[in-house]
Design a protein that fits this description.
Elements: H1 3-33, E1 82-86, H2 92-100, E2 105-109, H3 122-125, H4 169-181, E3 185-190, H5 197-203, E4 208-213, H6 216-223, H7 247-254, H8 269-287, E5 290-293, H9 294-299, H10 301-312, H11 321-324, H12 336-339, H13 342-361
Parallel strand pairs: 1-3, 1-4, 2-3, 4-5
Helix pairs in contact: 7-8, 8-13
Pfam families: Sulfotransfer_3
Organism: Thiohalocapsa halophila
Protein name: Sulfotransferase
């Protein structure tokens, strides 16, 4: 075969492979853009049928009673797991660091984070400079590399809503392993469980849940990580590339359950952020045992945590203020008035509240 023919075949092969790659990326993008059309766990629930026993004649497993449905037994030491649920940039790392410095507690940092702390390496060592005196996010995961067999990276962005009937046995096993392996009282600080709390409550009925929340306007300024951010006059584009700390990615997944979160329905990204914050707060109010505000935690750490520790039986209800002092910094003055007027925020929030009330009442 001549050199010219060989070169021609190589070029044709390269073009064919490139076309196949583009086709794959196109189909993947198309599927993601139309996920609400793809059957999933949020499909209409089966109506008019209830659970009953299998026919005894075949000797299959007996019927399961309501009290037997929880697959996660309590720890041998009787310690109840505590799940901390919070939105991103709400002070959850501070609260995790406080629990980490509390006697009798093993605090796991963001178990569902895509960086997979149990793998070790630089990711488990590196910390965000905005997290005061936070060291080695993955220290508590040391020696747990085998957790990779249950971990699913899709948990970070997919199927973010789970009701009591949802099924994810890998997630249940992964969390149960952390609960079981913790040397002391397990505390799991999570930023990806707020819309999964109905499932969590069903699968971990003996666990406690603590909600941490923050002023949504201040939180909005904190999620804008890029230098450009989203000034008040910037309209939200359909192909927005700035994600605002997972805000748009979460909205695109959750819009199948909560259509009001669809970014295409809003002029400014703050509306999407506010609706996520508001829905997360509603979930927390319904499914958490105790709720605390970030602002209260910073202003009066001991006064805010004492009833929490007493309620959950942590450290005998004692707050180690000396141990927490290096982790705290004075509450910064509110920044949102320099971002936009109160009227600007109120107009967006009022429209969101109207849409939310209409949807939930319906």
């Amino acid at each position: 075969m001549s050199t010219s023919h060989s070169n021609l075949l190589r070029r044709l092969s390269a073009r064919l492979l490139d076309a196949l790659a583009r086709s794959y990326r196109f189909n993947l993008t198309w599927r993601e853009a139309n996920r609400e059309l793809v059957s999933g766990q949020q499909a209409a629930r089966v109506r008019g049928i209830t659970y009953g026993p299998p026919p005894a004649r075949y000797g299959t497993a007996p019927a399961v009673t309501e009290s037997e449905q929880a697959p996660t037994p309590r720890r041998d030491d009787g310690a109840r797991a505590l799940f901390v649920t919070a939105r991103f940039r709400s002070g959850s790392t501070l609260l995790w660091n406080i629990f980490r410095h509390t006697p009798g507690v093993t605090a796991f940092y963001e178990p569902l984070n895509e960086r997979q702390w149990f793998r070790g390496g630089a990711d488990a060592e590196r910390t965000d400079p905005t997290h005061l005196n936070a060291e080695r996010y993955g220290a508590e995961y040391a020696g747990m590399a085998d957790l990779a067999q249950w971990f699913d990276p899709a948990w970070t962005f997919r199927e973010l809503y789970m009701d009591a009937r949802s099924c994810d046995r890998r997630l249940a096993r992964y969390l149960a392993e952390l609960v079981a392996r913790a040397p002391e009282r397990p505390v799991l600080q999570c930023n990806r469980l707020d819309f999964r709390l109905p499932w969590l409550r069903r699968v971990f009925p003996h666990a406690d849940v603590l909600l941490l929340y923050r002023n949504p306007r201040e939180q909005w300024l904190s999620v804008q990580r890029s230098s450009s951010g989203a000034p008040p006059q910037r309209r939200l584009c359909p192909d927005e590339t700035e994600d605002y700390f997972y805000t748009l990615a979460w909205a695109r997944d959750l819009r199948r359950v909560f259509p009001c979160l669809d970014p295409g329905q809003h002029d400014h990204a703050y509306a999407v952020h506010y609706l996520l914050w508001r829905l997360s707060y509603l979930f927390g109010q319904q499914y958490a045992d105790v709720s605390i505000a970030y602002e209260d935690l910073v202003r009066d750490c001991a006064g805010t945590l004492r009833p929490v520790f007493e309620r959950f039986g942590i450290n005998g209800g004692q707050v180690s203020t000396d141990a927490y002092a290096p982790l705290l910094k004075p509450l910064a003055p509110e920044r949102w008035p320099s971002y936009a007027s109160a009227a600007w925020f109120e107009d967006i929030e009022a429209a969101c509240e109207h849409e939310l009330a209409r949807f939930l009442d319906a």
